[in-house]
Amino acid sequence: MRHSVITIVGILVLSLVLGACASQTASEPAQPADAAAEAQEPAAAVEEPAVVEEQVSGPLTVLCGPQEDWCQAMTAAFQDQTGIETSYVRLSSGEAVARMEAEADAPTFDVWWGGPSDGQVEAFTKGLIEPYIPANAALIPENLKDEASGWTGIYVGALGFCSNQDVLDELGVEAPTSWDDLLNPKLQGNIAIADSRTSGTAYTSLYTLVLLRGEDGAFDYLKQLDSNIFQYTKSGSAPGTMAASGEVAVAIIFSHDCVKFREETGANLVVSFPAEGTGYEIGAEALIKNAPNPAAAKVWMDWALTPEAQAVAATVKSYQVPTNPETIVPAEAISLSQVNLVDYDSIAAGEAKSALIERYAEEVREGAAAPES
Amino acid sequence: MSEFIALRLREFRRLTQDGWLSLGFLVSILFLAFFIIFPLGKILSVSLSSEAVPVYQRLIAGRATWQVILNTLKMGLGTAFAGTLVGFLFAFVQVKLDVPLKKFFHLISLLPIISPPFAVSMSVIVLFGRSGLITKDLLGLRYDIYGLDGLILVLTISFFPVAYLTLLGMMRALDPSLEEAATSLGAGKWRVFRTVILPMLVPGIASSFLLLFVEALADLANPLLIGGNYTVLASRIYMSIIGEYDLNAGAVLSLILLVPTLLIYFIQHYWVSRHSYVSITGKPAGYSRPLQSKWVKWTLFTVCLLIAALIVLIYGFIFVGAIVKVWGINYELTLEHFRFVLLGYGSKAMTDTTLLSAIATPIASLMGILIAYLVVRRKFIGRNLVDFTSVLGLAVPGTVVGIGFILAFNKPILGGLVPKLTGTALIIILAYVVRSIPASVRSGVAAIYQFDPAMEEASSSLGASSATTFQRITMPLVRPAFLTGLIYSFTRSITSLSAIIFLVTPQWRIMTTQILNEAETGRFGNAAAYCVVLIAIVLTSIGLMYAVVGSTTGAERMIDI
């Protein structure tokens, strides 16, 4: 059953790509290296949509939001399949928007892949996104994409608490099951979270709190929480490594990152969720306005929605829930239905982002320099 | 007056008669003007322009800015104090004590010079962090290494060699007869040390202190990794550029960092180093008698041994980090990290970085020697300026060089004659060269001062052209200095982070920034493997350069510049 579905999807993708390529003018000559690679694997080449993509050439530069190893695996897989020379830079959401804004006239990047869609929405409101919806995005559920602001979801995952059980035991604290549990004085200096200015993960937590407590309530809470925070990190997942190594007891990160760190390190990490509700991210991809190589970017975006591309995640222990219903969901993934979610509207979250971040910088971080690591 | 001008003009004309040599001079001087003066000027003009006014307002209003400046000063002073103390101790033990393991101590104190950034910080976090192998598992403490104390510890270990080498040279050059005179007049050992030796070393101590202060201020890697929430200027600048992508703020903060750094550097360079009591008479003045007091001797030896052991532990632990599964958590052996660096994703970083450094190295060394020759042997208008400028590349913090490069070269200049350089590999090479030239110049100047111009004059009067003389007489004589320049440039380039972090492109992977990526996301194993490979590349290259260029100098003199 599954097999035939994949075949159908494959054919569908193939025809879409064929159509896309046919509409392109003066195709570039196939690179000799690709021709050679094709000659070596003629059987595999027949079904692969990659064959026709030779007409699009590199280099492609991806602004990559998730963790380094996933970025590496994705770019390598894409380059293998298409022959398009691909490189990436990993940037957190806030950094990404700042960078794109600064180089709006001559962007370095072609496509923004990964990271909570709030960031892509914010970039869109700033005129930094060229809406492009891959044709195969039809497969993606309606609530996981937005045609108007030009992004398509590639994975989803819920925000959670990632605790090191050994440290919790030492401190005599249970794994937190509500946002208020984090205010426990015993956890002083034992919680890590990223800085919302740079990290999309941390912004997801900020907006979740806004939904739960109203804007003023959220900032009151974050100011109280501040005394328990050991370090505000730059990237969203970094607090998880601190929990894994026992530097802190609790990290506020996406639950899938916690599972990843547990699998990778063997540390005694436990995932828990706030009972009153938690937020989630839709990891999104979007085409960057004035991209130097939009053709290759579109090939990437189409490819990134295919089950085989989405399956790359699990090979590097990134257990987000893939958006394409045809992608095999890894057993380790935490499905959103298991968790009590707030009604998180990532369009509204993205539109509110700039203003909320400004208030966050002033009130919570008191003009402190944003963090470095 | 007109006579003066005529004289100067004649000198200038003489310069142009040097054949291809004058071309070399011209290229070197243009290089300094274009890649050192111009970017710094750009920082000045941006940070003093009207666009920067809101940035100043914001910075002055922000309570955190003053905190950052205060943090930076505390870190600088702490490192300068501790580093000078350790450097002094090591130099003193080396020169004045008759104890075993002196060669070992010497080698240990050279180790941090070739070490990549982050190495010490990572190791210290895993060893002494909250869940550190020593602090937690051995001593049962939950010690918080992130912050000022951790920073001073790692910076002291990273930079004390500067103090050590400065003081070592100075102590060796002290005239022992003064000491003997004091002793024969009946002064005790402590009194001799306090009233004779120490005063003579004051310039060296001051110079080490100031140099360490500047080095600490300029360092980026360690504050990024072990600073925690303790922000200093260098890391604040990094945040402005990488996190906020605000070039104006970057330029303003650079200026704030640049002014004290330059001031102190030039106080050190022009004032302290001139007030030296070291006199080289050339006559053997007897030898310094080793310190006799057993109690003092073995106490100092023990302290030295403990510090050396700490350094060995820290560096040795990096190798451990590279071959275990999860450094600090899971000590199962694995080759995964080395596979990642040598065969996997990291292999491109390895070849790219080595290639770019290898291109920059000979350029920097050759220009360094040419500039040194120009400064020492030729008289012309602006000679002091050339001398001054050539030192700037070292005195200016790397982050500032990086921002200057972005501001200066992020669009075509000179009417398109020079294309946009940012985003290319060329700009990385240029940054490497700018950072490496000063050391080459300094070793060149020292070497050229040492031999008598009569040799070159003889060559000239026998009818050789300037170019021939330079090639046949000068070059062979300065070869050891040239080698020093090569080794220093290569090491400096391949381990540099702060100058190129804003310049790296997705297409060219640089090992030091890859180490940052890996360490920042907690993958210390890969980062450690990168560090080990980097150290291996540096050591191999030094060996290779010896084989190719050849040298009669000892291994210790090569780094002792």
TrEMBL record, chain A:
Gene Ontology biological process: thiamine transport
Alphabetical list of InterPro entries matching this protein: Ferric-bd
One GO CC term on file: outer membrane-bounded periplasmic space
Superkingdom of the source species: Bacteria
Keyword Signal: yes
Entry keyword set: Signal
Pfam families from the UniProt entry: SBP_bac_6 (PF13343)
Signal peptide bounds: 1-22
PANTHER family for this protein: ABC TRANSPORTER SUBSTRATE-BINDING PROTEIN, THIAMINE-BINDING PERIPLASMIC PROTEIN-RELATED
Protein name in the entry: Iron(III) transport system substrate-binding protein
Species in which this protein is naturally found: Pelolinea submarina
Source lineage: Bacteria, Bacillati, Chloroflexota, Anaerolineae, Anaerolineales
TrEMBL record, chain B:
CDD domains: TM_PBP2
SUPFAM superfamilies per UniProt: MetI-like
Keywords noted in UniProt: Membrane, Transmembrane, Transmembrane helix, Transport
GO biological process: transmembrane transport
Cellular compartments annotated: Cell membrane; Membrane
Domain ABC transmembrane type-1 stretches: 69-268, 350-545
Matches recorded under InterPro entries: MetI-like (IPR000515), MetI-like_sf (IPR035906)
Transmembrane segments: 20-40, 75-95, 107-130, 150-171, 192-214, 247-267, 298-324, 355-376, 388-407, 413-434, 481-504, 524-549
One Pfam family of this chain: BPD_transp_1
GO cellular component: plasma membrane
Keyword Lipoprotein annotated: no
Membrane-protein topology: Multi-pass membrane protein
Record-stated family: Belongs to the binding-protein-dependent transport system permease family.
Name under which the protein is recorded: Iron(III) transport system permease protein
Organism: Pelolinea submarina
Lineage, uppermost ranks: Bacteria, Bacillati, Chloroflexota, Anaerolineae, Anaerolineales
